[in-house]
Amino acid sequence: MTTHSPRDAKGRPRVAVTGIGLVTSLGRGQDENWAALTAGRSGIHAIRRFPTDGLRTRIAGTVDFLDTDPLVAPLLSERFAAIAADEAVGQAGIGAAADFPGALFIAVPPVEMEWPQRQALAEAAASQGEIGYGDLQRAAASRAFDGWHDLFIFGTVAERIAERFGTKGSPISLSTACSSGATAIQLGVEAIRRGEMTAALCIGTDGSVNPESLIRFSLLSALSTQNDPPEGASKPFSKNRDGFVMGEGAAALVLEDEAAAKARGATILGYVLGCGEKGDGFHRTRSSPDGAPILAAIRASLEDAGLGPDAIDTVNAHGTSTPENDRMEALGLAAVFGDLIGRIPVTSNKSMIGHTLTAAGAIEAAVSLLTIRHGRIPPTINYAVPDPALPLDIVAEARDVPVARVLSNSFGFGGQNTCLVLGAEPA
């Protein structure tokens, strides 16, 4: 890398990435995931975790090679986060003996008691009489379910990960829908830029493929119902797309003030050059029809990086495979990039791993950094029927090209939009 100032054009510390960790339905660690992604292999399959008889959607990108007891979202999310963070912290060579020299920013799914636990509580209440609110309160107060108290509190995953890695200060838990993982990275970047710390551990994790979440998304008509074959269901930007496929996993990034990283002899894997965020509020699930929030988030990330659209080599799209989201993202990209749009490769990792929800922004940022390091853009599989209304250069097969800068998009329910610009070197 060339010599440059440790501060950017706005006088802020440059934020380097020194560690990456990954776990998805495709495998554990960077190597397994990168090999599968670039080979165009899908991790989406028939759900085996619970019965799906009678459900319209019976597929997901579950991480079946890991397990917990009980099999609930908080424990799965914690386990995924720990595995990803172990890899990232180990690669960075920082925080030996559970003494990470910075804060934890972790995106986790919304937490509520799941059906098996609700049933057990109801049965305990029924054994004491009729099931009313007072009966449930008495059953919960019986001390028979004490272990559930910590399990189903929103901040528990963060507290356990913070204790495991010895992060400093109060861990920050956040949930901004599908942009959560990118938001966690943004918070780490901003803290380092403000000079509050020289390192941050940023994680996005989600293990919430369960019957209730599947049914809720189905009721929103958000999920694909093309169950056979499972690996063909997620088809971002295709004309015959019909919804997203749920997935799960985690990614962790170790971010550092570049000067501090170099002072300790760390290997720099890339940089977070820019972050852009724009709230919407148009609708609980739908995007604003004028695309203004998406445009604003993309433009803000480029402005924060001090770059123009012509500096982006590829886009790691949000690309959920839903009819509306893909259309809005494509129109937003076309508006920002103008005449360049047909020449900028666009890809969506969700075609292979599904939509990992609160983990998605972090996972896709990690994949974007691997794209830069390897000079290879993973494909958007299942792109057999292009949508002529979406003027994008979709990468249907892995493409070997030099990549210096990636725009990674994350657009969440409720209009929570976050975009990241990642690079091999500072702008």
From TrEMBL:
Query: Cellular component terms, GO, for this chain's entry?
Result: cytosol
Describe the location of the Ketosynthase family 3 (KS3) domain by residue ranges: 12-424
Question: What keywords are annotated for this sequence in UniProt?
Answer: Acyltransferase, Transferase
Cite the InterPro entries for this sequence.
Beta-ketoacyl_synthase, Ketoacyl_synth_AS, Ketoacyl_synth_C, Ketoacyl_synth_N, PKS_Beta-ketoAc_synthase_dom, Thiolase-like
Please give the pathway this protein is involved in.
Lipid metabolism; fatty acid biosynthesis
Q: Name one GO molecular function term.
A: 3-oxoacyl-[acyl-carrier-protein] synthase activity
Q: Does the keyword S-adenosyl-L-methionine apply?
A: no
Among Pfam families, the record links this protein to: ketoacyl-synt (PF00109), Ketoacyl-synt_C (PF02801)
Gene3D superfamilies given in the database record: 3.40.47.10
Q: Record's superkingdom? A: Bacteria
Matches recorded under NCBIfam families: PRK06501.1 (NF005076)
Name of this chain's protein: 3-oxoacyl-[acyl-carrier-protein] synthase 2
